[in-house]
Amino acid sequence: MVILKNYIQWMVKLFIKKEDSNEKSLSKKIAIKLFICIITIISTCIYGLGSSYAASNLQISIYAGINAKSASASSGLGDSHAWIVIKNLGNPIKIGTYNLGTNKSLTMGLFGNTSRKGIWYNKEANDRGLYQNNSNTVYLISTVSHSKISAIEEVMKNNNYWGLLHNCTHFAVKVWNASGAPSIDTSADPASLRSRIMSKSGYKTGNTHSNWVNANTDEKWYSINAISSTVSNKEILSRKIIDDDRVIYIKEDKLIFIYE
Fold this sequence. Notes:
- The protein is of the alpha+beta class.
- Helices cover 36% and strands 24% of the residues.
- Strands 8-7-1-2-5-6-9 form a seven-stranded antiparallel beta sheet. The chain has a three-stranded antiparallel beta sheet with strand order 10-11-12. The protein has a two-stranded antiparallel ribbon with strand order 3-4.
- The protein is globular and about 85 Å long.
């Protein structure tokens, strides 16, 4: 910026300085060409910085919806649900088992009332009209780095099961916090998450944000580590982590199942 300031001062002096007309004309031409070069360099740098920023970032949103128009919009908690929306701002990426193109969005939620229980992509995209377009549906949005994708995938891998004590809300909060977005405390259900979101500065309401409106609609089941049946509260409370990559469930001292 100092160089640009000095150059502008030089140009002003050049244009008001008295000198031979031919010499002055040549100097002006040189000055104009130099000015164009400097503006071009500055513009290129600004565009490059912007492109680099966009190419390595995601927009992530955490939603909590209550009083949905139909229980089919829920994950098994009556007429309420919590979920994540992710928009890819740059180069194509993969989140879990889903390929997400440039400027494309997906939704992601945990379900216990589906034929295949666990994490689903884009169910909320198809059910958007079932959520209220008012303060019954609230969300936060944050821009985070692509480098956080691995942390998000780790949460997905280790939390692909549903129960009343491990429902859509727990999953959405864990993904949000793993992404590097401003942290939200654990919530028991979408209603309590809604209250937490509304306590944050900059929260928004409704179902019309473009990232959700334009999200992909191809519903896909995330099958990694999925448990086919709903896990009971007692089983969740007795969960044990083995070697950080295996989870076992024990009920009444009997092994129920293991998944890796």
